[in-house]
Amino acid sequence: MEQSEFLEKHIFKGLTNINDGFDSDDIQYFTEADFEIVLQRVEHFGISVYGIESWLNGEMFDVYSHDAYRKKATDPRWYNKAFSEFKKRQEGLAYAASYKVSKKFLERE
């Protein structure tokens, strides 16, 4: 199984991609409520999150990465804190992240 298939099946299932063309078609963006679910699912599977990108009204708002938090990409403390900081700074953001699914998960599927 490819990483994109795994993400579709286990992480993005039932959620709405709100990328209406403001970024590359292969990047999925979610509302705050849906992205919170994405992060819960990512934590459940132990998937790496390298960065979180936020957009407001079709314009790049900000990006946070695990390096800035000095945490491993699999550590949920960094991405949950970053998400919380985004929410405090601005309402109505669209969120995307860069993920890495381990080969172990991909081979099992």
Walk me through this protein's architecture.
The protein has 109 residues and is α+β, with helices and mostly antiparallel strands. It has one domain: Ribulose 1,5 Bisphosphate Carboxylase/Oxygenase, CATH 3.30.190. Helix content is 39%, strand content 21%. It contains four helices and three strands; from the N terminus they run H-H-E-E-H-E-H. The protein has helices at 3-11, 32-45, 76-89, 103-108, and strands spanning 48-56, 59-65, 94-100. It has a three-stranded antiparallel sheet with strand order 2-1-3, with helices on one face. A hairpin with a 2-residue loop joins strand 1 (48-56) and strand 2 (59-65). Helix 2 (32-45) runs antiparallel to helix 3 (76-89). It is globular and about 40 Å long. The model has no long low-confidence stretch (mean pLDDT 93).
What are its keywords?
109 residues, alpha+beta, Ribulose 1,5 Bisphosphate Carboxylase/Oxygenase, three-stranded antiparallel beta sheet, 4 helices, 39% helix, globular
In brief:
It is built from four helices and three strands. The chain has 109 residues and is α+β, with helices and mostly antiparallel strands.
| Widest β-sheet, arrangement of strands | 2-1-3
- What is the molecular shape? globular
β-sheet strand percentage: 15-25%
Count of individual helical segments:
4
Rg from Cα = 13 Å
Helix content percent band: 25-40%
Largest sheet: 3 strands, antiparallel
Low-confidence stretches: none
Could you spell the SSE succession in H and E letters? HHEEHEH
Structural class: alpha+beta
Number of separate domains: 1
**What is the CATH architecture descriptor?**
2-Layer Sandwich
For this structure, the CATH topology is Ribulose 1,5 Bisphosphate Carboxylase/Oxygenase
CATH structural class: Alpha Beta
N/C terminus separation: 6 Å
